[in-house]
């Protein structure tokens, strides 16, 4: 099998890849337990935007530090990438911004999405796994 | 567009779907922050098995409650499913079991994987989004 190379991605490249897919997962604490929910997102001006309905568990994540992850895995799990953003989740309050994101961001799960949430990335990490020539540095 | 139906999955069906894919994400606390790592898994006898290397952040998740998520999203994010398992992560110690899983479970990220971890599902939730006929109950 072709060897693969594990590569760390820059912050800029990580955010670019995150913005290239539409579904990711928000990770937070809920009732003192680790929780995760798949949602649609968009990356706008370096920030991650998601929507939530009012009764959702993830409303308990507001004003706390959350992680947001997206990945892409292909060719029998041989290659792909993953990006993880960590930062505080805040509910947007400016009506014009809310209206704009409501137009741009269609929720994956059909539900009444009352809130728009912005995650301000403090920490951005990413890696990719790519095929490479045998003998190349980093080949595994 | 064809309407979609949101459907909760039974525990049995959730574990079946989890076992039908190879990559998921373990969710845990690391240094008091929410953390997530994509890994390969298998479902064996109703338990989720993953591998980890000794220096990984997720070693701090051992003997704590973690969440494990896998999903499948298709057709422009219109349909798919997601399964979330919550339970305690334990390191396997029986050499025969470790050797067996090391044969069965090839890590996604090429690295020396010293440990085999089992998540015993306490809570299993899942949902699916499927297309359905207009007027069917639950169509959205």
From TrEMBL, chains A, B:
The lineage of its organism: Bacteria, Bacillati, Actinomycetota, Actinomycetes, Pseudonocardiales. InterPro entries: Pyridox_Oxase-rel, Split_barrel_FMN-bd. This is Pyridoxamine 5'-phosphate oxidase family protein. It comes from Amycolatopsis rhizosphaerae. SUPFAM superfamilies: FMN-binding split barrel (SSF50475).
């Amino acid at each position: 099998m072709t060897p693969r190379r594990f590569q760390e991605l820059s912050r800029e490249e990580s955010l670019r890849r995150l913005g290239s897919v539409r579904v990711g997962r928000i990770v937070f604490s809920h009732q003192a337990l680790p929780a995760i929910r798949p949602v649609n997102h968009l990356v706008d001006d370096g920030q991650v935007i998601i929507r939530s309905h009012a009764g959702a568990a993830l409303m308990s994540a507001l004003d706390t530090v959350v992680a947001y992850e997206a990945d892409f895995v292909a060719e029998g799990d041989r290659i792909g990438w993953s990006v993880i953003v960590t930062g505080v989740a805040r509910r947007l309050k400016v009506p014009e911004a809310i209206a704009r994101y409501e137009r741009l961001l269609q929720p994956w799960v059909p539900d009444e999405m009352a809130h728009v949430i912005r995650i301000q990335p403090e920490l951005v990490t990413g890696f990719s796994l790519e095929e490479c020539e045998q003998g190349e540095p980093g080949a595994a």
